[in-house]
Amino acid sequence: MGCRRQARFHHQELKGKNIGVSDFAGTEYPVTRNVLRNLGIDPDHDVKWTAVGSGVTAGVALQRGAIDALAYYDTGFGQIEGAGIDFKLLPLPKDLPMVGGQFLMALRERFAKDRDLLVGYGRSVAKASVFLMASPRAGARAFLKMYPEAAPRGSSEEDAIKAVLVATARRIKLYDPPYAGAMLGSINPDEFRIEAQMNNMKIGGVDDFYTNALIDEINQFDCEEIKRQALSYA
After folding, report:
1. Number of Cβ within a 10 Å radius of residue 197
2. What DSSP string runs through 99-146?
3. Sign of CA dihedral 156, 162, 166, 168
4. What DSSP assignment string belongs to the chain?
5. Domains detected in the chain
6. N or C: which end of the chain has fewer CB within 10 A?
7. Does the pLDDT value for residue 7 go beyond 70?
8. Which tens digits make up the pLDDT trace of 46-90?
9. Rounded to whole angstroms, how far apart are CA atoms 158 and 164?
10. Is there a contact between 2 and 90 (Cβ–Cβ < 8 Å)?
11. For 135-191, what is each residue's pLDDT tens digit?
């Protein structure tokens, strides 16, 4: 969560404040509600919520004081930072549980019918993750080569690369598996149980929610070769 630099909030000082989110369908809204609840702050009565839009628009709302704090995600804060808008990030609350973020999904029947396609897609994501961790700059250059329209209007190549790096720097840190010995792309089922608890949901088994059946095949590539390609990318 970000707040205006001059506000210097502590977590408990969020009581009575106006918190911005991109929109109420965004994942930051339910996640932040749970975080506040775990801090002893009632998300329905102790704070006000305002939808402020995505990207730099959200940063402008924070800068102008339309909101007191902004609940957002890593690349979103990167976009705001890249626009030169100053803010302070609150530290993560102590003992905040770890839960999953993005997942690759497919219909069940495709696991039998298109297994090779799913493995190939998963492997491309894993390779891209290794590439980016080895050289974020190379990743930014490759991204802009594929999507030149993503560069800020009128910017030089170097400025465009810097803009992408600022926007993605926090996300890249999350690509490395957070558990010792875990393989790229693997899912820890305990995270489903924790998230269900946070949302006061009663669930039985979690086997129907996920599978790691393709992970071994997805990781069958030469990591060192991908790193070498990243470091020598021109």
Report:
1. 14
2. ---------HHHHHHSHHHHHHHHHHHHHHHHHHHH-HHHHHHHHHHH
3. positive
4. -EE-TTT---GGGGTT-EEEES-TTSTHHHHHHHHHHHTT--TTTT-EEEE--STHHHHHHHHTTS-SEE---HHHHHHHHHTT---EEPPPPTTPPP---------HHHHHHSHHHHHHHHHHHHHHHHHHHH-HHHHHHHHHHH-GGGSPTT--HHHHHHHHHHHHHHHHTTSS-SSTTPPTT---THHHHHHHHHTT------GGG---TTHHHHT-S-HHHHHHHHHT--
5. 2-89 (3.40.190.10), 108-231 (no CATH)
6. C
7. no
8. 999 999 998 889 999 999 999 999 998 877 888 888 788 888 888
9. 10
10. yes
11. 999 999 999 999 999 888 888 999 999 888 988 887 888 888 888 899 999 999 888
